[in-house]
Each structure stands twice: as C-alpha cells, then as structure tokens.
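Recall the central idea of this unit: under ordinary conditions, the amino acid sequence of a chain determines the structure it adopts. In this exercise we apply that idea directly, starting from the sequence alone.
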Amino acid sequence: MDVSWEVTGELVDWLAGRWQLEIIADLAGGGETRHPSPPVELTFTPGSGRYTASIPMRGQLSPGLYDLVVNLTTTTAAGTAGALGGFVVISRLTVKE
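Accordingly, the structure predicted from this sequence is:
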C-alpha cells in the first residue's frame, strides 16, 4: 500500500522528529488486527512537507473482511510522543484463502 501526505504552512521548517505510519486492519465482527509489519518511520523533511511511504500488504492478513485504517503519528526529536497525527479509514477489504 502506498501512502502520501503533505504538511503545509510557515512552520514546516521548524518541525523536528519522525513520522510513524502504520496500517491497521480492523476485522469485521470484532477484534482488531494490526498489520504485522512494524510502523514505517520517516524523518521530518524541512522545506518540503511532502512524504510518501510504502507498506507491503500481500499475504499478511488471514481470510476475512477488514476495514483498513491508515494511522499517522509523530515522535519528537527527543523520542517522546509528538503532537501531530491523524488517521483515515480508507476502504473495506475481503481477504480470501
């Protein structure tokens, strides 16, 4: 799965830390299955604000119906939880055997 996002504004050059991007697959009917891959981490890029990451999904989920969620969080340069983040529910996915 390819994910792109952009941060704009005058303070983009002042951001320091890292993005953490993960895909969450919520199993319909109960239970939550996080994607087995660790989160993708990207360092803030001063002057740009545009980011793209790829997370491999093939063969990673058991058969079932899932809601896919992209979850984006940040960590500060000191390694603590950052104040930026968000999520988006992108689609329903049926995984067959």
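The chain has one domain: 2-95.
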